[in-house]
């Protein structure tokens, strides 16, 4: 006779948020960015430069990591899931503007967010746009600084000015990004494992959770790692409601 305590509890259900390819792109790009920030700090700050030493080695690492920044993003375009997320990040819907205006943008009522936030909120979209623009600007100005011969003094001076000041802005934005990630365990889990709890999705990305519905890809304790998302078959695109994407 089977007792109640002998019955195995139901397996926990998770929502697939990021594929392995998407997580790899994020991790490699983030690592390269952090290396560039750390080496730049050592090159620009006299105290750190004296403490660490090996200036030429740091400069070489900084230059090569800087030029490598676009590589994981370009290679990631072979992933349908990554391309679909790029399209999401590039779309600013009416509720995104409302998310920016409202102070209670993160409020939860009845276990759901007050706004129908999609897979990415407006802050994440703006951060992605800034990072993309910053990488291109740093790449261009870095090329002028690394290979100065073809360029005039005006170009070299301007590139150095933009490169140095943009570095400071990148430090601030990166610190804010890390702060937001570390204080939101659900978001951090999604980027580390690819899976998120449906309750977390309903609280922070209600529109995305609604669009997925019962047809969304679900995984249990094992990460399938399969690239199952595309702009054509993703429910967030195919079944969007008025005012969503």
Automatic annotation (TrEMBL):
Q: Where are the transmembrane segments?
A: 24-49, 61-82, 126-145, 165-182
Pfam hit, one: Ni_hydr_CYTB
Q: How does it sit in the membrane?
A: Multi-pass membrane protein
Q: What is this protein called?
A: Formate dehydrogenase
Where does it live in the cell?
Cell membrane
Provide the GO MF annotations for this entry. Answer: electron transfer activity; formate dehydrogenase (quinone) activity
State the taxonomy lineage.
Bacteria, Bacillati, Actinomycetota, Actinomycetes, Streptosporangiales
Organism expressing this protein natively: Actinomadura chibensis
The residue ranges flagged as biased composition, category Basic and acidic residues, are 225-239
- Which residues does the annotated region (Disordered) include? 214-245
Keyword tags: Cell membrane, Membrane, Transmembrane, Transmembrane helix
Q: Which InterPro entries match?
A: Cyt_b561_bac/Ni-Hgenase, Di-haem_cyt_TM, FDH_cytochrome_b556_subunit
Predominant location category:
membrane
What is any one GO biological process for this UniProt entry? formate oxidation
Task: Show the GO cellular component annotation of the record.
Answer: formate dehydrogenase complex; plasma membrane
Would you say which domain of life the source belongs to?
A: Bacteria
Cytochrome b561 bacterial/Ni-hydrogenase domain spans which residues? 17-194
């Amino acid at each position: 006779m089977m007792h109640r305590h002998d019955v195995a509890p139901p397996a926990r259900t998770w929502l697939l948020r990021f594929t392995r390819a998407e997580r790899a792109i994020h991790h490699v790009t983030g690592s390269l960015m952090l290396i560039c920030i750390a080496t730049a700090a050592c090159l620009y700050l006299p105290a750190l430069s004296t403490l660490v030493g090996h200036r030429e080695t740091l400069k070489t690492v900084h230059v090569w990591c800087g030029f490598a920044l676009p590589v994981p993003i370009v290679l990631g375009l072979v992933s349908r899931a990554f391309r679909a997320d790029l399209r999401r990040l590039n779309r600013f819907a009416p509720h995104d503007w409302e998310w920016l205006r409202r102070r209670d943008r993160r409020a939860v009522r009845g276990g759901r967010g007050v706004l129908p936030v999609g897979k990415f909120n407006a802050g994440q979209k703006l951060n992605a746009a800034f990072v993309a623009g910053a990488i291109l600007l740093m790449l261009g100005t870095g090329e002028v600084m690394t290979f100065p011969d073809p360029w005039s003094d005006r170009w070299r001076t301007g590139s150095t000015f933009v490169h140095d000041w943009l570095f400071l802005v990148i430090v601030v934005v990166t610190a804010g990004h890390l702060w937001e990630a570390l204080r939101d365990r659900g978001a951090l889990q999604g980027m580390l494992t690819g899976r998120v709890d449906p309750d977390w999705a309903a609280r922070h990305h209600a529109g995305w959770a609604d669009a997925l519905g019962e047809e969304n890809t679900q995984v249990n304790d094992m990460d399938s790692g399969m690239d199952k998302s595309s702009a054509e078959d993703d429910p967030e695109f195919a079944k969007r409601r008025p005012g969503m994407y």
